[in-house]
Specification:
With 549 residues, the protein is of the alpha+beta class. The chain has helices at residues 3-18, 32-40, 53-64, 66-76, 84-91, 102-113, 117-120, 158-180, 188-202, 205-218, 253-258, 263-281, 318-332, 336-345, 355-366, 379-391, 399-418, 424-440, 442-459, 463-517, 522-541, and strands at residues 121-122, 130-131, 135-142, 148-154, 225-226, 239-243, 247-249, 284-285, 293-296, 305-307, 313-314. Strands 1, 2, 3, 4 and 6 form a 5-stranded antiparallel β-sheet that branches. Helix 13 (318-332) runs antiparallel to helix 14 (336-345). Is probably a protein kinase regulator of UbiI activity which is involved in aerobic coenzyme Q (ubiquinone) biosynthesis.
Length: 549
């Protein structure tokens, strides 16, 4: 470890103890060396004994800085691991940090462009439009077309800071795994690994730009979602340049109402957008918190969303999509047996799971929800509770499902904020039923045939040769099998003959020995022994040799 990393480790330990996070670990699970280390740092005391555990953790992460703030935000979505109280505390973490010097921002932008800012832009604003833990945003005008753009640049040395903090987190997680045991509910090593994947993806702004381009193309003519245009030739690993948009933050209810926005339609479109991204495109924005979503000022009676920050995107396999859709449909049909079967068929839980016990556990979770009106049932919480239940049956962690769950919770919270009477089932059910009919019905079969047809047409000229080759291989295989069978039968016959001769020789030798000991006629004794010896030699020579078939 370097001196810098040692200092950072001490700072993290100091803040952790300052907020009394060590006291949250049960005493019976704390080893003697941990207690000894804590006593050695006697001058650091818990200054927040009057606060609950979740609030202490939130304040500690806030003080630890950007990497820990984003980690806390990610952890707040893991309600399968944390209680609602802790998750809600962490959800209040805000990713706002002071901006860094604009002179440094200029240097970093010019280093990525390989030219001065004046070469491509005019009216570059040194005052940042926004500043977050990973990046900073400045505005400018593009010289080539006079359009307003924003430049998003990574913070200086942010990669080194992230990697150092992630390494420290991993080491801490490994220690906690040892301390709590691998069967513990929190699974710290797994959580840190998920976070590593997420935050390292956010450090590559070129990837964010490519994600935005793909999402934009998916909704070019939708009228529901607008993704700002990316100037791909000006996008790099540490810098991206995109169209500047003018919209109302989706959390600004006063402004939305002031312009007469159709909030019911806006809320329903949010749900439709989620299911379209997941089931139609299999490419969904997995960081749709209110700070990344705006509403257009145009057509308030027919509003559409504007999406930003495509650094974290999610995808599902075809099997995952089908099982999820069936899960939702089975839930509203109260078919708990089918839900249990789906979890086992999908491989999310072990095939050895007692399906009857699992069905009962699902029923205990889901049945009380039907006492609520449909417009109060949360898809996100249904999925969350099902995952929690499956954890008790050793559910295998599915990172892509965690992203989906987080996104669904965001969308539902947003929809109900816009329109509290939103009935997600009424909005989503037709979509899910149509999608399922297209996947498993005649439409689905026709669609798959249509998709595969170009491939088979391309392979059609090769078909006669492939058929001939396979028939020839089959003929050779049968011939080979017959030859192996013949060799096997011959070897078995030789084996039986050899065993017969060896057994007969043993009997004759024993008989000759007995006659000799009893003083019988010597010629009879010698004849038996000699015959037995000859048969033994014949049997030994005729024994089959070991050979592979």
């Amino acid at each position: 470890m370097t001196l810098k990393s040692i200092r950072r480790a001490y700072q993290v330990i100091k803040i952790t103890l300052h907020y009394g996070l060590d006291e949250l670990i049960p005493s019976k699970m704390t080893p003697w060396y941990f207690k000894l280390l804590r006593n050695c740092l006697f001058w650091i005391r818990n200054q927040h004994k009057n606060k609950v555990g979740g609030e202490r953790l939130k304040l500690a992460m806030q003080e630890l800085g950007p990497v820990y703030i984003k980690f806390g935000q990610m952890l707040s979505t893991r309600r399968d691991l944390l209680s609602d109280e802790w998750a809600e505390e962490l959800a209040m973490l805000q990713d706002r940090v002071p901006p860094f010097d604009s002179a440094i921002a200029r240097e970093m932008i010019e280093a990525e462009l390989g030219a001065t800012i004046d070469t491509y832009f005019e009216d570059f604003d040194d005052t940042p439009l926004a500043s977050a833990s990973i990046s900073q945003v400045h505005t400018a005008t593009l010289k080539s077309n006079g359009k307003a753009v924003v430049l998003k640049v990574l913070r200086p040395d942010v990669e080194d800071q992230v990697h150092a903090d992630i390494q420290l987190m991993s080491q801490t997680a490994s220690f906690l795994e040892t301390l709590l045991g691998h069967g513990n509910r929190l699974r710290p090593a797994e959580v840190i690994e998920d976070y590593r994947t997420t935050i390292e993806g956010e450090l590559n702004l070129k990837l964010e730009a490519l994600n935005a381009i793909r999402l934009r193309n998916n909704f070019l003519d939708s009228g529901s979602l607008y993704i700002p245009y990316m100037y791909e030739e000006l996008c790099f690993t540490r810098l991206i340049v995109m169209e500047r948009i003018d919209g109302i933050p989706v959390s600004d209810m006063a402004a939305l109402k002031a312009q007469g926005t159709n909030l019911k339609k806006l809320a329903e479109r949010g749900v439709e957008l989620f299911f379209t991204q997941v089931f139609r495109d299999n490419f969904f924005h997995a960081d749709m918190h209110p700070g990344n979503i705006f509403v257009s000022r145009e057509h308030p009676d027919d509003p559409y969303y504007i999406g930003l920050d495509c650094g974290i995107m999610g995808t599902l396999t075809d099997e995952d999509k089908r099982y999820l859709a069936e899960n939702f449909l089975a839930f509203f049909n109260r078919d708990y047996r089918r839900i249990a079967q789906l979890y086992i068929e999908s491989g999310w839980v072990s095939p050895d799971t007692d399906i009857g016990a699992f069905e009962q556990a699902v029923k205990v979770v889901c049945e009380p929800m039907f006492n609520k009106p449909l417009d109060e049932i949360s898809f996100g919480h249904v999925l969350l509770e099902l995952f929690r239940t499956a954890r008790r049956f050793d559910m295998v962690v599915q990172p892509q499902l965690v992203l989906l769950e987080k996104t669904l919770l965001y969308i539902e919270g947003l929809g109900r904020q816009l329109y509290p009477q939103l009935d997600l089932w009424q909005t989503a059910k037709p979509f899910l039923e149509d999608w399922m009919s297209e996947q498993v019905g005649p439409k689905g079969m026709a669609k798959k045939i249509k998709q595969e047809m170009p491939y088979w047409i391309d392979k059609l000229p090769e078909l006669p040769e492939l058929v001939y080759d396979n028939l020839k291989m089959g003929k050779n295989f049968v011939k080979s099998q017959n030859q192996m069978l013949a060799r096997y039968l011959t070897q078995q016959q030789r084996s039986h003959k050899s065993n017969y001769l060896l057994l007969t020789s043993a009997v004759l030798v024993i008989c000759g020995t007995l006659l000799f000991n009893q003083g019988a006629t010597l010629w009879a004794s010698y004849t038996c022994i000699t015959s037995g010896t000859i048969l033994w030699l014949l049997g030994w020579r005729s024994r089959p040799k070991n050979r592979k078939f």
